[in-house]
C-alpha cells in the first residue's frame, strides 16, 4: 500500500506557515514503513528538534482506479478516518529553502499515524465534518472539511491522474491551522465528529 499526502489544503494553515496558496494540490508520499504501529508510542527522532503534529482526515481506497472523474470518486472509498502527518519542521524548512524534496521531513519511520476508520455512510455530509486534535486534553487543532480548498472527491480525481490507486491506499487530506511542536509526555488524541479515533503517547 501507499500513503498519498496532500499539503496546503486549508487556507489558515497556509497562512500560519507563510506558504504560497497553490494553484493545484501539493502532493507527497510516505512509504508503508512510515506507519506508526498500533498502540506504539511516537518517539521523537534524533534528527529533529521541532516535530509538529498535523491532524488530517484520512480516506481509505477500496477499489483500483486511475483517471477517476470527480463524479465517480465517491465509489472508491467507503471509510473515513483520522491521523497525524508528523513533520520535522526544522528539516522541512532547510529542504524547502533549497528546493529539495520533503521526504526526510515527512516520510520517516513513525511519521504516519493512522487511526480507526468509520463508515462514511454514518455521516450526513463529508463536506461538513468537524475534527479535533487534543494535546494532554487541551484542543490544539480544530478543523472542518468545509474549509478544504480541494474536497475529498476532487483530491481522489487529481491524485489518480498520476498514481494508480489500489485497495488499502490511504490519502491524508491536509491539515488545518494550529500545528505545533510535540514534546515528550504529550498525549495526542484525535476525534472525528466526537468519535475518538486515536491516542498517541509522545516519547
Ligand atoms: Mg500534512
TrEMBL record:
Record InterPro entries: Fumarylacetoacetase-like_C, Fumarylacetoacetase_C_sf
Gene3D superfamilies reported for this sequence: Fumarylacetoacetase-like, C-terminal domain
Gene Ontology MF term list: acetylpyruvate hydrolase activity; metal ion binding
UniProt KW keywords: Metal-binding
Superkingdom of the source species: Bacteria
Keyword Metal-binding attributed: yes
Alphabetical list of Pfam families matching this protein: FAA_hydrolase
Domain annotation Fumarylacetoacetase-like C-terminal: ranges: 2-186
Keyword flag Transmembrane helix: no
Protein name per its UniProtKB record: 2-keto-4-pentenoate hydratase/2-oxohepta-3-ene-1,7-dioic acid hydratase in catechol pathway
Native source species: Flavobacterium endophyticum
